[in-house]
Amino acid sequence: QVQLVESGGGLVQAGGSLRLSCAASGRGFAAYTMGWFRQSPGKEREFVAVVNWTGDRTYYSDSVKGRFTVSRDNAKNLVYLQMNRLKPEDTATYYCAAGLSTTRDSADFRSWGQGTQVTVSS
Q1: Residue 60 to residues 16, 57, 78, 105, 120: CA-CA distances in angstroms?
Q2: Where are the beta strands (DSSP E) in the chain?
Q3: How far apart are the C-alpha atoms of 77 and 35, rounded to whole Å?
């Protein structure tokens, strides 16, 4: 099992960019599918993006497709979420997660970070 720590969140104006990082420690990082999810107050956690263990397959939610890019560096045990053209509705706590399937379902991910806050002002 891996331990995950997100970083890179903050306050940004609409139209701006942020890059989130997720650092993994523990055994077997390269074997895990890595996902990004987000949650706003009063809302359920929602899928954002996922990348498979080799990094050559990625999937995105319709709300972020074309604006966000997920990538990974297995040599450094890092996963990134590049977020461009941010909108106020992107405001949420963002979580990275590790799982064994390339899926959008949060129930399939077994390890989670503590989250990093992203706030987009209008």
Answers
A1: 19, 10, 19, 12, 20
A2: 2-7, 10-13, 18-26, 33-39, 46-51, 58-60, 68-73, 78-83, 92-99, 109-112, 116-121
A3: 14
Contact in structure between 90 and 120 (CB atoms under 8 Å): yes
**What is the token pair recorded at 16?**
């701006």
3-state SS, residue 104: coil
Assess contact for 109 and 35: CB atoms under 8 A: yes
**Alpha-carbon distances of 100 from 1, 38, 84, 106, rounded to whole Å:** 11, 19, 28, 12
pLDDT digits (tens, 9 = 90+) for 54-85: 999 999 999 999 999 999 999 999 999 999 99
